[in-house]
Amino acid sequence: MITNAPRGTKDILPEQITGWNYIEDEVRKICAAYGYEEIRTPIFEHTELFQRGIGETTDVVSKEMYTFTDRGNRSITLRPENTASAVRAYLQNKLYAAGNLVKLFYIGSMFRYDRPQAGRLREFHQFGVEALGEKNPAVDAEIILLAWNFLKNLGLDELELKINTVGCPACRPVYRQKLIHYFSEYHDELCGDCKSRLEKNPLRILDCKVDADKDFMDDAPKIETCLCDECREHFARVQELLTAAGVEFKIDSRLVRGLDYYTKTAFEIQYTPLGAQSALAGGGRYDGLVEEIGGAPTPGIGFAAGIERILIALEKQNLIPAAQKNLDAFIVTAGREAEVCGFKLLNNLRKKNIAATMDFASRSMKAQMKQAAKSGAKFALIIGEDEVNENAVTVKNLETSAQNKISIDEVAAMVMRNA
Ligand code: AMP
Fold first, then answer.
1. How close is the Cα of 115 to the center of ligand 1, in Å?
2. What is the domain-level CATH number for residue 89?
3. Any idea what the Cα angle at residue 259 is, between residues 268 and 9, rounded to 5°?
4. 238 shares its domain with 384
5. Ligand 1: centre distance to CA 309 (Å)
6. Are 160 and 267 within 8 A, CB to CB?
7. Which residues have C-beta atoms less than 6 Å from ligand 1?
8. Is the domain of 231 the same as that of 361?
9. Looking at the structure, do residues 164 and 73 belong to the same domain, yes or no?
10. Which of 117, 307, 309 for a ligand 1 pocket mutation test, highest count of atoms within 8 Å of Cβ?
11. Phi, psi torsion values for 111, nearest 5 degrees
12. Secondary structure of residue 292 in the 3-state scheme
């Protein structure tokens, strides 16, 4: 039992790390290009932050949180997402004081007690961005473009961008009433969850996975008939800017977020070949969130993307770069004295940031040479009895098989010249 990691978690093994590092490097590159700065927040927070920041009626808060009481009797929760924490950090550290639009990004693990399956884990990793302090729809377009271009730059095709607007506290109540009225007629056909959503959070019925294909869904009222002028203009402007940037999108009127602090733009990017877990990234505007968490009213928008799912998509298209074996030198020794010389050389090379290794099992020279060839190192640095006496090293270039003897003091410079 203790040799199995908990259900829904995964080790990331050395052979898989290239893909992870690749994605993280690409995240940092694109965020630098768009002017987003990295933030790292604690893995756990006060439970109340997520109850308020995500909302008690959401599945994440009501069913999926890893919550425990710590030894000081506080209720603590492992973060199920990073937006609430980023907003908390923004307020606690007064990042708003500079008076500018604050643009943050994060990469890290999140925790949700969900039913594990391909592309759905209990510990998973997201990267995401948050822009706080600006209501201009240009920020919505910038964020969507960042997510879109990130996935496009990785080489993924069959991506689909879906956008929608969820209105604002001024116009959404009218839409809510329309939905309650409409779905009440189909009350008996709704799933159990949707029956309880009907009064509390009727927008969420629209993105229910269980009821998705039921006939009455297609004719549900659409929000566009209820939008106030401001929300209508905002949504039109986002579309205009995306079109100007040459990005194709679909309007999906069932893409919703049910809570009051979610406003206006909602979007999702899907990688269609992944079927049920096709959402690679999702986000939207949350102009009411900062206030909900205790700050002054501040507009905000962000998205999160799932790294495991992106990796599955990259694997499908064979887009993960090959691991680079970057060992420069493998030291081969014969005899106790040579081993000491080799160990000293190893240490000197490493001090100069040359990637070097040697065999510590005192195997035969032949076995060590085999190991050197397998290691991917560029050079075998051979030290036998003669070399010890001459203070020299026999250098074998493992790519060309060329071999020559040089002074031990020249080895580092030679490896560096040829690395
Ligand atoms: P969300 O925070 O629910 O909006 O999700 C944003 C993205 O995170 C999704 O589009 C997925 O790519 C990823 N994601 C969410 N939940 C999980 C999970 N349990 N396992 C793996 N990836 C997830």
1. 13
2. 3.30.930.10
3. 55
4. no
5. 8
6. no
7. 81, 112, 114, 119-121, 124, 126, 279-282, 304-306, 308-309
8. no
9. yes
10. 309
11. -135, 125
12. helix
